[in-house]
Each structure stands twice: as C-alpha cells, then as structure tokens.
Write a structure and sequence with these properties.
alpha+beta; HMGR, N-terminal domain; 3-hydroxy-3-methylglutaryl-coenzyme A Reductase, Chain A, domain 2; Alpha-Beta Plaits; nine-stranded mixed sheet; two-stranded antiparallel ribbon; 20 helices; glycoprotein
Length: 590
C-alpha cells in the first residue's frame, strides 16, 4: 500500500450506531494536501550562489544597479553622437545579460515568494474562518488496517479552527436547506415563511437556522421546542425564532376585599417576589386591604389640522357640545358591542386640534377597540368639515406608553386606590421597623424626594417593579408599564400613632383579560390562577377591573415591604443575600 500518496477528501456515510439511531451523511469538503508538511523544501532564489544570504543579496543588488547605470550612460553617449542604438558591443551584450540575470534573481527572491506568502496566508485564513466540518481523509481509512501495516502512516495535521465562530447544526432535509439558502441569498423574505410553508414551527426553525448562518453567531441557549407558534401568528409576534424563559414566582396570599389571591410575578430580580410576599403577609395579618375603582376608560386622541385656528376652534366647540354627544356616540359605538363612548376632551394648538376620546372596553385593554371607534367618528366629521386634514389617529394626547400629565390627572384605563391599616405589632414583628420611621421616610423619599427630582407620577418607592412583573406574567403589554406605574404612596399614623394607614393611588392601570398575550398558554394559566381568565359573561369588564385592583393591591404590598426595609436599613443586606449568586448561570444553561 502506497502510504505516501496524496490525501484526498472522501464522502462517507458512517455505519449505523449500535442502538439503531439515525445515520447522517457527512458532507464533502475541499481537499487538503498534507505533503507540504512532510516533503523536502523547494529550491529558493537565494540558492543561486553558495554564499551567506546577505552577501548574495548584496552582490545582485550592486550588480543590477551598476549595470543599469552603465547601460544608461552608454545609450546616452550613442544618442549624443547619433550612433544607432541597436548596434551593441560585446561589453554591452554582457551587461544586458547580467542585468536580466540579476533582475530574475531579485524577482524570485522578493517578488514571487512575497506574493506566494500572501496567497498561502489568505487561503489558510479562509479555511480557519469558513470550514466548519471535520476532515475525513484516506489516511484515516488506512489506520483501520492491522497495526503492523499502519505504523509508518503519518497522522494528518488538523487545521486550527476558531471555536468562537463554529456553529454545529444537525443535517437538514434537502428542501429545508434550499429554503435556508434562499433566505440567506435574499431571494425569499423571512417574514413570508409562515404563509409559504403553512407550518409555523417549521418556519421558526428555518428562520432560526438562516439567522445563525447570516450572523455567524449561535442562538443555542434560546429555546425553540415547547411553544405553540400557531397561537402568536398575526397577533403577538412576527418572525419568531424562539422564546425567552422568565421565572414566575408567587406572592401571597394577598387578602384584598375579603378574597385571597396568589399573585404570579414574572421577574429576574432577586428579592422582588420575597419582598412583595412579606408585604402580603403584613396586610393579611391585619385583616386585608380594600380597593376602590374610580374610573374605567381607555383613550385615543387623533390630531387634525385646519387652514386656520378659527376653523380648528369651530370643530372643538362642536365636539364638546353636549347636544352633539349622542350623535357622536352612535357613530363611535358601531365598531364594537363592548366599546361605549364616555367623553371627548379637546385641546387646541394653533390650527391643530387634539381630540381625546374615552370609552369603556369591556374585558379587553381596548386600544384597538377605541381606535376603530375614533376612525368612525373621523370619517363622519369629514362630511361637515371637508377641510379637516387628519394628521394621525394618535396625536400623543392619549397618551400611550409615555409619561404624561394628562394620564396622571385625568386617568387612563383603570383608576384604582387601595388602602390598608397595619397595626404597630405587625410593623414591628413582620416589617422589622416602626411607624414614625415609615411615615418620615415616605414623606422625605416618596413625596419630597420625588418632587425634587421633578417626578411625573413617580411618587412611590418601586411601583413599576410589581406592575411589570404582574404584567409579564399575565400577558399584558409591558410597555404600558410606564403609565400603569403612575402611583402616589401615602403613609400616615392613625389611632393615636398605634397603627399605620398606607395607601396607593394609581390613576392609569391599563390591563385586559382577553386579546393580545393573554391568550397564550402560560399567561392564560396565570390569569386563571387569579380567577380572571377571559371575558366575564355575567358582567362584561368585571375581570379586567378585578385584575387592575389586584395589581394595585400587589403594589401596596410591595411598597409597604420595601419602605420597611429602607427604614430598617435592611435593603443592601437582603439584596446581597438573595440577589447575588456565585454560580455561573450561563454555563449551567449551556
């Protein structure tokens, strides 16, 4: 057997595993010639003379430039004396031949080797970056013969592969491979996979593989299995490639209006669930909390423009005239059996008019519902105000997903106030502090401190922490945490200082129990845990109103516990104990 022959790449199919598992073919890859690692070095230009390299180079450098100078001087004299240039003497002929020889040497030493070094380097770099398959060569086949025959078979030198760039994937069906290549090439848009394939999970898988190949980065830690991708099609998320796991903890029982609730909180912040749970314990020990729903109405405010401010004012008077409200209500209410127009508030800025519509939305959060009603009214107004130019159906006077004084003052969604009276004994034993310290801290931190900061609706300790955690767990819009977290926390000593009255007033909690993310399996389970899953058939809107009250009650518990930890100086200690870990979670996930 000729063991010195050139190694060539072969396409192999490994034998089936003993357990009868799947058998995947290895894809062919380019040939690597390993003879250059073991054969004798090729002749170099510097071998022309048996002298040290620096002397050889010096001789040919001197020879080249000396001969070039000699020939130029000779040609100059011929031109001056009008002698034909083609008439060459013996000395000139020798000089020309020597010049050519020295040029060939210099080109071989500095030119060819220099270019070849770059070609070799770029080829090696290209292989390190792009070849992500294992090399299977004929030498490996020869190693399977008896040991005595293969003792002198050299092992191939494995190329160095940069592990940070490697993405190992299971071989895919040929049809999927073609689709992935088309996405990478840009011939098939990624967003069209669901409609073309008719299989949402397969579309997510193919999109995920294409993403990894385009970016050169792995998304191995992002799970794909175990999710119903059909449920999000057209309503929750576009172009999915997986889903994010967020742990859900339970705080409670929260005793609110005489009913116990186990509150689900999706968060990655240590201490948050534990702290809220301690607040629930304190509230429960004192007979629970009570809540009152003040308002329930979602808003949308389009902006329209006229040629003059006078015309804008005329529409303002028309919209705010009570005699026109019934007509506008009939037009607005056509779009939904739950959406009912409640009020219209207008604001004018020059020749621009902002109209803030407020309507009830049943158990839905209601943004789409109110937007459809507003569009109906705008179409109707176009008949009497043909010069009205609708700039946008949302003019930020709503105001959605932004801190705004109009929400803080007028409210948006559900406006709730929740209160509880905590006894001195519970404050001491459960919350580990005292009533005067809590009252003073609340005044200096939540009231005066927030005023110094210029806060807008942020007169609280951490209402957004609890609101965000409950929102994520129950499928609400996390971005609406901004206005939903508007809250003022009040604390006051009552009953001659023996008890603490604590309350939270939240004017714009925007929640729903139908639509959006509430219909996903995990979020639906959390809503079911609270007893507010889906729409209420007996009293439409009651489930979403109850959810808003639960959010406010949870915020009350969170505020009470955190303020107590701050008053007792326990915040840093508790976070160092529960919110720090020496375990490398990334390695665990991998």
């Amino acid at each position: 057997m000729d063991v010195r022959r050139r190694a060539t790449t072969t396409k192999l199919s490994p034998a089936p595993p003993a357990n009868g598992g799947p058998r995947y073919p290895l894809k062919p890859i380019r040939t690597i010639d390993h003879r250059k690692n073991s054969s004798s070095p090729s002749p170099q230009a510097s071998d022309a003379l048996p002298l040290p390299l620096y002397l050889t180079n010096g001789i040919f450098f001197t020879l080249f430039f000396s001969l070039a100078y000699f020939l130029l001087q000779r040609w100059r004299e011929k031109i001056r004396t009008s002698t034909p240039l083609h008439g060459v003497t013996l000395s000139e002929m020798a000089a020309i031949l020597s010049l050519i020889a020295s040029f060939i040497y210099l080109l071989g030493f500095f030119g060819i080797d220099f270019v070849q070094s770059f070609i070799t380097r770029s080829a090696d770099d290209g292989f390190d970056e792009n070849d992500h398959q294992f090399i299977v060569e004929e030498e490996e086949e020869r190693r399977r013969v008896p040991c005595g025959v293969s003792l002198d078979c050299p092992l191939p030198i494995a190329p160095k592969i940069k592990e940070s760039k490697l993405i190992f994937t299971t071989p895919l069906p040929e049809e999927d491979e073609e689709i992935i290549k088309s996405i990478v090439d840009g011939t098939i848009p990624s967003y069209s996979l669901e409609s073309k394939l008719g299989d949402c999970k397969r579309a997510a898988f193919i999109r995920r593989e294409a993403l990894q190949r385009i970016t050169g980065r792995s998304v191995e830690g992002l799970p794909l299995e175990g999710f119903d991708y059909e449920s999000i099609l057209g309503q929750c998320c576009e172009m999915p490639v997986g889903y994010v796991q967020i742990p859900v903890g339970i705080a409670g029982p929260l005793l609110l209006d005489g009913v116990e609730y186990s509150v689900p909180m999706a968060t990655t912040e240590g201490c948050l669930v534990a702290s809220t749970n301690r607040g629930c314990k304190a509230i429960y020990a004192c007979g629970g909390a009570s809540s009152v729903l003040l308002r329930d109405g979602m808003t949308r405010a389009p902006v329209v423009r006229f040629g003059t401010a006078k015309r804008a004012a005329e529409l303002k008077f028309f919209m705010e005239d009570p005699a026109n409200f019934d007509t506008l209500s009939v037009i607005f209410n056509r779009s939904s059996r739950f959406g009912r127009l409640q009020s219209i508030q207008c604001a004018i800025a020059g020749k621009n008019l902002y109209m803030r519509f407020t309507c009830s939305t049943g158990d839905a959060m209601g943004m789409n519902m109110v937007s459809k009603g507003v569009q109906n009214v705008l179409d109707f107004l176009q008949n009497d105000f043909p010069d009205m130019d609708v700039i946008g159906i949302s003019g930020n006077f709503c105001s959605d997903k932004k801190p705004a004084a109009v929400n803080w003052i007028e409210g948006r969604g559900k406006s709730v106030v929740c209160e509880a009276i905590i006894s001195e004994e519970v404050v001491s034993k459960v919350l580990k502090t005292n009533i005067p310290a809590l009252v003073e801290l609340n005044m200096l931190k939540n009231l005066a401190g927030s005023a110094v900061a210029g806060a807008l609706g942020g007169f609280n300790a951490h209402a957004s922490n609890i609101v965000s955690a409950v929102f994520i767990a129950t499928g609400q819009d996390p971005a609406q945490n901004i206005e939903s977290s508007h809250c003022i926390t009040m604390m006051e000593a009552v009953n001659d200082g023996r008890d603490l009255h604590v309350s939270v007033s939240m004017p714009s909690i925007e929640v729903g129990t139908v639509g959006g993310g509430t219909q996903l399996a995990s979020q639906s389970a959390c809503l079911n845990l609270l007893g507010v899953k889906g729409a209420s058939k007996e009293a439409p809107g009651s489930n979403s109103r109850l959810l808003a009250s639960i959010v406010a009650g949870s915020v009350l518990a969170g505020e009470l516990s955190l303020m107590s930890a701050l008053a007792a100086g326990q915040l840093v200690k508790s976070h160092m104990k529960y919110n720090r870990s020496s375990k490398d979670i990334s390695k665990t996930a991998a």
